[in-house]
Each structure stands twice: as C-alpha cells, then as structure tokens.
Amino acid sequence: MGELAELEAKKKRFAPDVMQACLEHNNALSEKTKLERKKNSAKLQLNRYCHNLIGNYEHTINEYLDQFNAGFRITDSRHVYTGGKPSSHYQILINNTPVEVGNAKTPSGKPCFRTTLSSGDRSSLALAFFLAALSQDSQVADKIIILDDPFTSLDRFRRTCTQQLIRNLASLAQQVIILSHDPHFLKLIWDGYPTAVIKTLQLYRAGDNTMIGEWDIEAETRSTYLKNYSTLLDFYRDRTGIPLDVARAIRPFLEGMLRNHFPGQFQVSEWLGIFIDKIRNADSTSGLQHAQIDLPEIEDINSYSKKYHHDQNPGADSEPLSSDELHGFVKRTLRLVGGC
Questions:
Q1: What whole-number distance in Å separates Cα of residue 80 and Cα of residue 72?
Q2: What pTM, to 2 d.p., does this model score?
Q3: Arithmetic mean of pLDDT, 134-139
C-alpha cells in the first residue's frame, strides 16, 4: 500500500494543474530574488546618497554656527530607518562632549538639547538648519523666503550676523519677507537698501478687522522707545548715564516694547501696571496670551523700577539706588528683547 501511495503521488506531480502551480512558484521565487537584489542595490545607493547629503548639511550647519560664534557644533549626523521610515540623527558637541538631542521622554537631569542650550543657542541652531537647507536648494532664485522673528532670543553679535545673512539671501532669492515685532533690528535690514527694492508694511486694527498698510520705519525708530533703549544699553555696556535716569527709563521702555509687540492692545493713558493686569487675565483668544511666558520677569522688573517713579513712590528722588543692582535689572530688561 505504501509503495502504491508513493507512485500515486509521483503521478499527481505531473498533472497539468500541479505542474502549472510548481512553475508559477518557481517563477515567483526567481522574481523575489531579482526584487531583493534591486532593493539591496537601491538601499546601497540611498545609503550612499544620504551619507553624502547629511555630511554636507552637517558641514554647512557648522559653518553657520561658527559665524554665529556659537559654543557648540553638531556631530555624528547619520541617517536611520527607525520605524521603517528614513530619518536623521545627530548629536550636539559642547566642549568636545557629545550630547543627545533627546525628546519628551528624556529623564530629568540627563543632558540633552533642552537642558544644555540657551534659548539663543536653540534659535541659532534652528536658523543654521534653515540657512543650510536654502544653501543646498538649487532653485532658491525662484523662491520667496519668509523669516518669522529671526532675531528672537539672539544676542547683539548674532543679530548683526543674522542681519548680514538675510541681506545675502535677498541677493539670491526672488523675494525675502521678514516678520518681526522689533523695529530697531528691522531698521538694520532697511539701512543701505534703496527704497525701490525694499518695502516696510505693518498690520494694524481697523474696527474688527486687521489691515496691512504702509509703515514709516524711520519715524518709528526715532521714537522715545529707541532713546530709552539707548539709555539702557549704554548703561549696560559702559555704566554711562545718570543712574536715576537709567532706572526711570526701564518702565517706559517695557511699555514701548509691549506696545510694539502687541499693537492696539494698550491705551495711550495706560501704564505698565495695567499692561501686566491685561496680560495676566488674557484668555486663549487674545494675542496677549503670548506675553504670559515673560510675565513673571516683567512683574519683577516692574516691582523694582516703580520705586523710582513719583506716581508710585513720592520719595522716588531719594530712594536708595545701587549701581550693581540697577545693572542687573537693566540686563534682565534688555534680555526681554534679546538686547544682551
């Protein structure tokens, strides 16, 4: 019986439907082998391409970081396929010590991007990534580039460097649009350009609507705000100026800063204390909610500076004033606009 069953099985092997199935199976195996070879070849090419591309990006990003005089670099840039999707990995190199970028799951106390870089450093790194991408774009001449508050959290040197880089971009791209709340650094971009190739516009409220209109940057930057800024900056840098005048410049400077950042939110008759109340009570529909992150610092600075104003302290003229303490509060004030 066993021999008969074996012979029946061999006979079935040559049945037309079985032979066809075997042929299709062999063809499928052959096609699979070809596809695997193509896949391995394509992956090899992709790996080579990613290695060269990411290496070029790392080099360019570090060149920009060097221009920003940043105290760190990126290193160990490579491509990975975590989760089946291609992505990139890199580390931050600080004092020759590599630090992982980290994420929301990074344990508290472990060095990472969030805990080792200042806000200015993070802004510099983000801008370096953006500029590096543009430098690799062969079609940049046909692009319109939009920069949203590129000066945020940058110190004075990095702002000057950013201003120069933006000017270079303007000569490469079809158009460059800069959005910012800071008129004084917009003035850096404005200076030196013929009015035929540069335009200054502003958003303003008209009833319940927001409109776009002409903006006189020259008049804006000749305001009291600029004078107060210069007073504070001169004292911060060189300790020049009358200390009481410097202390009294802090509050109107903060008022001017907030008026510039949030146009239409504050009345002419209102002062910093009312500004603070409005910011504190702003709901999620108000633009003032964006100022709430700086509110504790603004409150502390206001608490210090109001001692030197007669409307808050009748004895303001005789209020004790420490030059070192004043210098500290001037520095904190300028930091709110990235001025030091």
A1: 23
A2: 0.53
A3: 88
